[in-house]
Amino acid sequence: MKERFVLITGGAKRIGATTSRYLHEKGFNIILHYNNSELEAESISNELNKIRKNSCFTIQGNFNSEASINTLVEKVSNITETLDLLVNNASSFYPTPIDTASSDQWKDLTDTNVTTPLFLIQALALYLKRANGCVINISDTLIKNGIKEYSLYTGAKAALEGITKSLAKELAPKVRVNGIAPGAILWPDDKDLSDKEKESILKKVAIGRIGKPEDIAAVIFFLTESKYTTGQIINVDGGRFSF
Ligand SMILES: NC(=O)c1ccc[n+]([C@@H]2O[C@H](COP(=O)([O-])OP(=O)(O)OC[C@H]3O[C@@H](n4cnc5c(N)ncnc54)[C@H](OP(=O)(O)O)[C@@H]3O)[C@@H](O)[C@H]2O)c1
Fold this sequence. Notes:
Elements: E1 4-8, H1 14-25, E2 28-34, H2 38-51, E3 56-60, H3 66-79, E4 85-88, H4 103-130, E5 134-138, H5 151-171, E6 176-182, H6 195-202, H7 213-225, E7 233-236
Parallel strand pairs: 1-2, 1-4, 2-3, 4-5, 5-6, 6-7
Helix pairs in contact: 1-7, 4-5
The structure holds NADP nicotinamide-adenine-dinucleotide phosphate.
The site of NADP nicotinamide-adenine-dinucleotide phosphate (NAP) has 26 residues, from helix 1.
């Protein structure tokens, strides 16, 4: 059977790590990008390579640096000439109240959430075309109605959604481009939400619970199989109401 390759950015932790393992189980070879999480990346790689030899490769890259992105693309080209799937998952996320929001923050939040995804698609388009592959850009269900004190992050993700729809038209029919907009899947690592705050978020979720990373990984896999779906942003948010 033909080998299938996926590049997943930010693949060492949280949703990215679960997606790496999930797609590996479905038979993909994993090219796992990480930035700071080298230990976690190497640990997943060892785990997956024990299951199937030479089925997981790790590449470091900081999306705040153009040179680092070029190196990432070059390293991908040393691994494979075809790419079945690119998952733009890496992201930075923090509040930027408008009184103190800075151009450095804007640069950082756009670098990770939209600029790098865009230029990775550009650099890897030929690889994706050769495989009739697809791109999945990970957005956020909350951006449609805005998030107080997160205007820079929401602006970056909104741009990512616009790019998703436009490139779906431009890269068709060979390459499909879709997005997934997760709701509350994992609480942020660095933000201590009180039980009361968590409860108030969950009250807005029809399914009544926080999501699981597997819920996102399953829709990523579904989109790889859905050959007649492109230009869509799929909410995977348990039916989150907007207030
Ligand atoms: N978690 C949720 O409930 C939720 C909700 C809505 C949307 N989402 C979206 O779903 C995706 C995954 O969410 P998550 O919570 O699992 O992500 P996360 O932990 O916040 O971030 C994923 C990875 O992004 C990488 N990253 C951050 N800054 C980077 C930079 N400058 N250069 C390269 N990589 C960088 C980090 O890699 P290293 O660790 O290797 O440094 C990190 O592990 C994101 O796009 C997020 O916006 C998540």
